[in-house]
Design goal:
- This protein is an alpha+beta fold and about 170 residues long.
- The chain folds into two domains: about 120 residues, Transposase IS200-like (Alpha-Beta Plaits); about 35 residues, no CATH class.
- The chain contains four helices and seven strands; from the N terminus they run βββααββαβαβ.
- Helix 2 packs across helix 3.
Length: about 170
């Protein structure tokens, strides 16, 4: 089976380190070196009000919240990006503060997938709405979960298509 991934990323400022919903941050476990708690099946880091306050103070602009027209613009761009790259886009859900994609992309590095979808999505948004005050639509990086078999792919597509409060949902 070619490699398939569930990609997820958030809009700028919408989910900060230290958030009460949990976050994946680089923290010290006791007095040892810093560790990033981003392993599948492990809990998020708990709320850290001081860290969240520091993150809010460091924002370069207000948090980004997408609207329905922007979500439709992104869907069109994601479909075009996948077509041009020869990737199979299987499912998309765009919410106000985050995006989920299921994509089958052969041997493509998942970091390239994430980078291309985010950058071409940004270009498309910038062309119509201009750059946000923060100069970016997205937070850094994002989740690139590899889907190891057909059952995992089907589960990811179901997960994406059942998102609460989507602006756009599309399934191939």
């Amino acid at each position: 089976m070619p490699r398939a991934y569930l990609l997820t990323w958030t809009t700028y400022g919408s989910w900060l380190p230290g958030d009460a919903r949990g976050s994946v941050t680089s923290v010290r476990d006791q007095s040892g070196p810093r560790k990033r708690h981003n392993e599948f099946g492990t809990p998020y880091d708990p709320a850290m009000p001081g860290l969240k306050r520091a993150a809010e103070e460091a924002l370069r602009g207000p948090p980004v919240s997408l609207d329905a027209a922007q979500a439709q613009c992104l869907l069109t761009q994601f479909q075009e990006t996948a077509t041009v790259r020869g990737w199979r886009l299987m499912a998309v859900a765009i919410m106000r503060t985050h995006v989920h994609l299921v994509v089958n992309a052969g041997e493509t590095d998942p970091e390239v997938l994430l980078r291309d979808f985010k950058s071409y999505g940004s270009r498309s948004l910038n062309a119509t709405w201009g750059k946000p005050k923060s100069d970016t639509w997205w937070t850094e990086s994002g989740s690139r979960r590899r889907l190891t078999d057909e059952n995992a792919v089907r589960a990811a597509v179901r997960y994406v298509e059942r998102q609460e409060f989507p602006l756009v949902v599309w399934v191939d």
